[in-house]
Amino acid sequence: MNHLPQAWGRPRDDVYGPYDSSYLQNNGPNQHTQQPIVTGTSVIALKFKDGVVIAADNLASYGSLARFTNVKRLRKFADTSVVGFGGDVSDMQYLDRLLNSLDIDEAYSSAGDTLNAHNLHTYLSKVLYKRRSDFNPLWNQLLVAGLDGEDMPFLASADLLGTTFSSPSLATGFGAHLAQPILRKVAPDEETAAKLSKEDAVQSVKECMKVLFYRDARSLDKYSIAVITKEGIDLKEDEKLEQQSWAFADKIRGYGTQVN
Amino acid sequence: MPHITTGPQAATQLHAKTNTRASWCLELELALACTGYDLTNSVFSPDGRNFQVEYAVKAVENGGTSIGIRCKDGVVLAVEKVISSKLLKPGANKRIATIDRHMGAVSSGLVPDGRHFVSRARDEAASWRSVYKTPITVKDLASRMGGYLQAYTLYSSVRPFGITAIVGGWDSELELPVDGQVGEGPSIGAGGKVEGKTYGGPGLYMIEPSGMYWGYYGAATGKGRQTAKAELEKLDLAAGNLSLEDGVKEAARIIYVAHADNKDKEFELEMTWISRLDGPTKGKHQEVPKELLEEAERLAKKHLEGDDDEETKEDDKPAEGDQMEE
Amino acid sequence: MFRNNYDNDSVTFSPQGRIFQVEYASEAVKQGSVVVGIVSKTHAVLVAVKRNAEELSSYQKKIIAIDEHLGLSLAGLASDARVLSNFMKQQSLSSRLTYGRAIPVSRLVTSIGDRAQTNTQHYGKRPYGVGLLVAGVDESGPHLFEFQPSGMTQEMVACAIGARSQMARTYLERNLEKFADCGKEKLIAHGLRALKESLAQDKELTVENCSVGVVGVRGEGMTAIEGFKLFDGQDVQQWLSLVTEGAEEGEGEGEGMEVDS
């Protein structure tokens, strides 16, 4: 019998045939993350007159399995900004730890010169770009919501490629297709967003979360929503979609058991 | 000038040869130091002392007084900042630093060495977090920093720290969530949770240049440490009855009392505190709010004025008693 | 003959707990020509006297711009100041790159303080032989910091370091209350008057030997800044003329008298 360490815990060759140890070879290129594993779906956000609303559901999927149903994908930073995470959940946890240590560093001085949302977004996009340039990307798409240096509403996205983007409304993942058009109708440009009331903005975002739950199979009706203003962050992590109407579902044909 | 000698005999010879120097040393009452064993860190003298560490302690003894009080629901840190120049910006130049969210440190002695201490302590706290995914306890931080300071007594290529540092903090009494946790573990039983078990609490440690450290109910270092210690002892802190808010007032009073021996110099009082999670600072290390600080200073001054009269009365009698005994 | 044995390196404490090498390094600061810094609610200014090695040589630079929002002036070993200022330039640039933010002045000053401290605790290194005054603005307004070879850094309302700087400090202490509400011009004028106090009998401030650096905030909010500007040569004339004999009398505050007494 083979007692070499590489044979430990393996089926015996004489019983099961030669073991395929090709995966043990380490010649060939190094491989880092090739795909996300446990994932969060859309994050959506909308600027309004004196702040930003941001929302994401509480689901972490493992492929098509709804694996974890109470995952907080909106993370506070320094009581002034919120980061919404789409994509790989373990990479989100890594970034969360990174932000946590940054937050501690920033709080050393009591002078009140903490990083604002704009600074935070710049930092995160550099982290993401560095990782993609190392061919070891953090598989996320982020929305950073908060206030900038002039205390004006700030909203921007950064993704696994280090790409950055900014707009009065933003959505990641499925939301980019399903929610973004609705949000653009509410706030087509900065001027309109600057007139939008908080109530209208929150209402629109909640409506979008509902649409996403209707049409995105990797979504959940439990979600988190945060409103960031000069007064601080109002983060609710245990919201439930209200007034759902599935009447339209009847008419959907062409997949599953109802083939026609 | 011969510096390197071997054995006590050589030391005696050297002592004889460098007569002028010896007499200078005697003047300073440091005859022992004059054997050359005090010129290098990490070197023992024949009677087993490390003089460089002792000299580092001298640097501490000249620094402004720092104290820490461990109260039942939190910890207070306070420091007497002697104002060396009128041109200094009032209220700036903080001397008590945040190590981690729940922990602060203050030191007496060489101020830049204090900053070095803080910077290392922050690194230790951050590295603890990245390894164990939980905040470092005050005890563990004191242990790490004790080790760090001790290492600076081991080599001739470095000098010991010229500070004594007081570290205070509040270890969370709640069971902390697992870092980045997704979902929750079992509420009791196999998850390792024990019903009724309590965690955390206040922590206060003082670390000396030698690397020695102890836990304290009330700690004091710097110029006014003797007076401050005497005052701290009166508080019966071991009983664990002092509330945090009273602790703040006591700390202010003690700094004022300790400063009374050094009256000719003006000073600024700086205080920070850490309360329990349901207290005023929510387990975080923060500056004592302005209103409370001013109130504490007002009481301290009032006490000092009243004390002057009392002390003259009190002092008279026991002083006589002391003399009788001798 | 007695010799102090405790002053050969920066890793030896004297029996009194002093580190002589560090104290000697502070003496190097006093060899440098004098520099003055003052801060008000809106501005921070640096003024300095430059020295030339000989008649035909150029003057040693005394004020260095670090970033849009801050600069420093030095007294002591200029080459040590260059090492520190290069480091500061790197730090502030790195802050702008990674966070898109101007580095807070206190943080930058602390970072050079920490660097300097290392040089006082390890054998084979020597303390920096330079003192700095760092003036800058950040989110919390204008600031002035003093840096010493020991690694000590302190935030000041006003400060003077270098040769004969005690005279300048006396002037600053006497006028301390006035600084907070000064505008740019008045602040520079105070700086130059303090500088004059420290000048040797036969010396005078001229466009050749005087440098001025200014940085400030514009308007009410601290958001718009008036970037660090360095004045040298003929550009200094506008400031020097603020404190020429005639102008001072014109101010009518009798400050000239006060200074003379």
From TrEMBL, chain A:
Record localization: Cytoplasm; Nucleus
InterPro entries, alphabetized: Ntn_hydrolases_N, Proteasome_beta4, Proteasome_bsu_CS, Proteasome_sua/b, Proteasome_suB-type
Short name of any one Pfam family annotated for the protein: Proteasome
Record key words, sorted: Cytoplasm, Nucleus, Proteasome
Protein origin, superkingdom: Eukaryota
Keyword Glycosyltransferase appears in the UniProt entry: no
Keyword Glycoprotein among UniProt keywords: no
Family: Belongs to the peptidase T1B family.
Protein's job: Non-catalytic component of the proteasome.
PANTHER family xrefs: METALLOPROTEASE TLDD, PROTEASOME SUBUNIT BETA
Protein name, UniProt field: Proteasome subunit beta
Organism name: Venustampulla echinocandica
UniProtKB/TrEMBL annotation, chain B:
Signal peptide residue numbers: none
Domain of life of the organism encoding this protein: Eukaryota
GO biological process: ubiquitin-dependent protein catabolic process
PROSITE patterns: PROTEASOME_ALPHA_1, PROTEASOME_ALPHA_2
Parts of the chain that traverse the membrane: none
CC terms in the record's Gene Ontology section: proteasome core complex, alpha-subunit complex
Pfam families the record matches: Proteasome, Proteasome_A_N
Gene3D superfamilies, A to Z: Glutamine Phosphoribosylpyrophosphate, subunit 1, domain 1
Keywords linked to the UniProt accession: Proteasome
Residue span of region Disordered: 298-326
Domain Proteasome alpha-type subunits: 37-59
Matching PANTHER family: PROTEASOME SUBUNIT ALPHA/BETA
Similarity section: Belongs to the peptidase T1A family.
Protein name: Proteasome subunit alpha type
TrEMBL record, chain C:
Annotated ranges, domain Proteasome alpha-type subunits: 6-28
Keyword Cytoplasm carried by entry: yes
Pfam family for this entry, one: Proteasome
Signal peptide span: none
Single GO cellular component term: proteasome core complex, alpha-subunit complex
Entry coiled-coil feature ranges: none
Classification via CDD domains: proteasome_alpha_type_1
Main location, first listed in the record: cytoplasm
Domain of life: Eukaryota
Record text on subunit structure and interactions: The 26S proteasome consists of a 20S proteasome core and two 19S regulatory subunits.
UniProt xrefs under PANTHER family: PROTEASOME SUBUNIT ALPHA/BETA (PTHR11599)
Protein's name according to its UniProt entry: Proteasome subunit alpha type
Keywords assigned: Cytoplasm, Nucleus, Proteasome
Family of the protein in this entry: Belongs to the peptidase T1A family.
GO biological process annotation, one example: ubiquitin-dependent protein catabolic process
Gene3D superfamilies: Glutamine Phosphoribosylpyrophosphate, subunit 1, domain 1
Subcellular location: Cytoplasm; Nucleus
PROSITE patterns: PROTEASOME_ALPHA_1 (PS00388), PROTEASOME_ALPHA_2 (PS51475)
InterPro entries, per the entry: Ntn_hydrolases_N, Proteasome_alpha, Proteasome_alpha-type, Proteasome_alpha1, Proteasome_asu_N, Proteasome_sua/b
